[in-house]
Every structure is written in structure tokens, then in C-alpha cells.
Amino acid sequence: MLKIIVSGCNGHMGRVVAGLCAADPQVEVVAGFDVMGTGDGSFPVYASPAQFQGKADAVIDFSSPAALDGLLAFARTTKTPLVLATTGYTPEQVAQIGAAALEAPIFRSANMSLGINVLLELVKKAASVLGDSYDIEIVERHHRRKVDAPSGTALMIADAAAQSCGHETEYVFERHSVRQPRDKKEIGISAVRGGTIVGEHEIIFAGHDEVMEIRHTALSREIFAQGAVEAAKFIAGVTAPGMYDMSMLVK
Ligand SMILES: NC(=O)c1ccc[n+]([C@@H]2O[C@H](COP(=O)([O-])OP(=O)(O)OC[C@H]3O[C@@H](n4cnc5c(N)ncnc54)[C@H](O)[C@@H]3O)[C@@H](O)[C@H]2O)c1
Ligand SMILES: O=C(O)C1=N[C@H](C(=O)O)CCC1
């Protein structure tokens, strides 16, 4: 039985992850980390990782960038593998994650769904063929509670397009203050927030007299939670420190 800690256990994603684990005979949630609330009593909840004295095979984190320091310290001292699904990290935090991965296994993805990780490969292919003459724009839509913008997934998609389009790129997040035609090197990224939208990502390749779109729609949070549990099963079996991601699970 795999012993899992759910970080952000009282949030929207944390509760879905805990529910999936409860229904999975291979997995047991031994603790939760959360700064708010105590949970439903099915496992103990700690306000910070430093308070947890037990052992676990992996931590699944859907919380906030504010939780990162405590999680990285926990991974470094206990060598417990982390699955980081939280988005909105600063570039400095991303560097800290890389440094911690020299001492413990860390799995990180801004989107744990199977579909988005297949979509990334489609975007790379499309950008390599069309990227020279077609304009690339990304539109993402999420629920009104989401605090980071653009989504981590939109940035991941932009990175995939940038690495494959064969020319220098510049990400453009707003056009309001710009009064000039679009430059070839731009990748536009637009964020929409409203209601209870779970998550939508649309990549537009706009060329002369032709538009191609690739779209992914998340219809529930279970697709992310399921991917995170699969990632935890994978990383729990890894002893070597390093960075791991969904490309290792999507073959
Ligand atoms: N990678 C993916 O596939 C994926 C999918 C969905 C959401 N997310 C990301 O997961 C994160 C959480 O999303 P959500 O919708 O569940 O948010 P949420 O606000 O519903 O839940 C976050 C939880 O984390 C807790 N928390 C906040 N700061 C904390 C800290 N310092 N230490 C411990 N717990 C803390 C909150 O109390 C809350 O219970 C966001 O960054 C979101 O973008 C990633
Ligand atoms: O609900 C969220 O918040 C989501 N965040 C991730 C992101 O920022 O890309 C993945 C989709 C859902």
C-alpha cells in the first residue's frame, strides 16, 4: 500500500485527490497538509510539513506557491518524493525546485491530464510545420477563483510552441497598451476568468486565409487528480533525485 500525503487537502483539488485515493486499494492517505481547516477526520491534517513526523512514499501538492518552501525543506530532509501540481510559481521558485531536485525526486507538471500532455505533442508538431508563417495565439479559460494568470498550462503550451517554431519568440500577455501591428515573433496568451469553468485551452495557428485550432476542455477535476495519483505511483518507485514530468508517463 502506497502511503500518500495530500498537500492542500482541504482545497478543491485536494479533496478530489483524497476521494480518488480513498477509492484506490493501492493507495492510502496518511496525512494532509493545509493551512485552513481540519478535514473530515479520515486522516490527520497538519498546518505545515515540519509538523509531520511519520513516513510517506510521496506527497501530492495542489495548494499554493506559498507552500513551496515547507515542501522543499520536507523533501530535502526526508527524501520523500514530491508531485508538484501547483501553478503560479515565480522564476526564483522554479529555480529552487530545480535545486531541491538535486537531493530528492520531484515530479512537476502544470497540467496532470492525459489530454493536455498529448496536446503538447500536437502543438510541437503544428508549430514545427506552421510556426514560420502562421501566428500563434493561446486562449485559456478558468473559474473565477483562479488566482494565477495566465494558467501554468498556457505557459507550458507556449513553451512547447516556442521550442518548435524555429524562430525567436516573445510572449505577449496584453495588447491594450500596444498600438502596432502584430510582430511575427509574438506568441499571444490571453486569460479569461468566470464562473465554474474547470479549464479550457485553445491554441490558434492563424495564417493567410487559413486558421487551425487545437482545443482541450477539462470537464471535471478528476482528470487532474487521476494524473497526479498516477504520477505519485510512478515517483514513489524512483530513488534517484531529479526532475520528472508527465512526458515520462505519456508514451
Ligand atoms: N497541475 C494540474 O493539473 C492542476 C490542476 C488543477 C489545479 N492546479 C493548481 O493547484 C492549485 C490549487 O488549486 P485549487 O483549485 O484546489 O485551489 P483551492 O484554493 O481550492 O485549494 C488550495 C488549498 O491549499 C491550501 N493552502 C494555501 N496555502 C497553503 C500553504 N501555504 N500550505 C498548505 N496549504 C495551503 C488552501 O487552504 C486550500 O485548502 C492551484 O495552483 C492550481 O492552479 C493544478
Ligand atoms: O483550476 C486551476 O487552477 C487549474 N490550474 C492549472 C493551470 O494553471 O494550468 C491546470 C488547469 C486547472
TrEMBL record:
It is found in: Cytoplasm. Its main location: cytoplasm. It catalyses: (S)-2,3,4,5-tetrahydrodipicolinate + NADP(+) + H2O = (2S,4S)-4-hydroxy-2,3,4,5-tetrahydrodipicolinate + NADPH + H(+); (S)-2,3,4,5-tetrahydrodipicolinate + NAD(+) + H2O = (2S,4S)-4-hydroxy-2,3,4,5-tetrahydrodipicolinate + NADH + H(+). Keywords: Amino-acid biosynthesis, Cytoplasm, Diaminopimelate biosynthesis, Lysine biosynthesis, NAD, NADP, Oxidoreductase. The active site is at residues 142, 146. Residues 115-248 form the Dihydrodipicolinate reductase C-terminal domain. Pathway: Amino-acid biosynthesis; L-lysine biosynthesis via DAP pathway; (S)-tetrahydrodipicolinate from L-aspartate: step 4/4. InterPro entries: DapB_C, DapB_N, DapB_N_CS, DHDPR_bac, NAD(P)-bd_dom_sf. The keyword NADP applies. Pfam families: DapB_C, DapB_N. One of its GO terms (biological process) is diaminopimelate biosynthetic process. NAD(+) binds at residues 8-13, 34, 85-87, 109-112. The keyword Lipid biosynthesis does not apply. One of its GO terms (molecular function) is oxidoreductase activity, acting on CH or CH2 groups, NAD or NADP as acceptor. GO terms for cellular component: cytosol. Its EC number is 1.17.1.8. Belongs to the DapB family. NCBIfam families: dapB (TIGR00036). Catalyzes the conversion of 4-hydroxy-tetrahydrodipicolinate (HTPA) to tetrahydrodipicolinate. This is 4-hydroxy-tetrahydrodipicolinate reductase. It comes from Flintibacter faecis.
